Amino acid sequence: MEARKRPEYVLEILADPNYVRDIVRGILHTIFFHRYFPSMRPSSLEVLDLTLPVVADHELETLIETRVGQLVRQLSSTSSPSGGSRGELGVRFFEKRRRKGGLGGWLTGTAKNEEEICWEVWKLKITLTTPRTETERMTLLRAEAPALQRTAMTIVKIVNRDKDHIPPITTSEMNPFPYEILLNPRAEYDGKTIGFFS
Fold it and tell me: Is the pTM of this model over 0.85?
């Protein structure tokens, strides 16, 4: 059986300090709304006069809030008066597979004979921009809503177009595909870059 190529998508985001938390939360929830497979009651989030989907799952919402809070603290602590600062969040989705060879669990001391294989990666590259004048602030504010809308629509286009790599659901667990959200992931990505202001 041929190994599947794991898609990796890069979203570039430019935001001011007043809206960075809401913009990143909205983008993360939009990704998860389309890649979170348990049954759920959809909800929504208003960001810059846009309505974005939200996965109403306490565990996921807590993880998103935690990672976004860490990102905002990092961006705030490294921001300079003359410009902005940068940070990254990585979202990875996994499938659980049985390990090949029956001795794997016994040799490693683990009871489960499963491994998690990543089947999709999203990387959010966030640049915090601090406007120096009122004119700059208004220009950035006017650009943020259309850019957020383009990014949300880009996510929708990607998830509707790229479906063949999603593994079959082979478990009755509540969430068949584990996920993680990482602050400043170290792994290399060779995915497509999708500009927030393109």
Answer: no
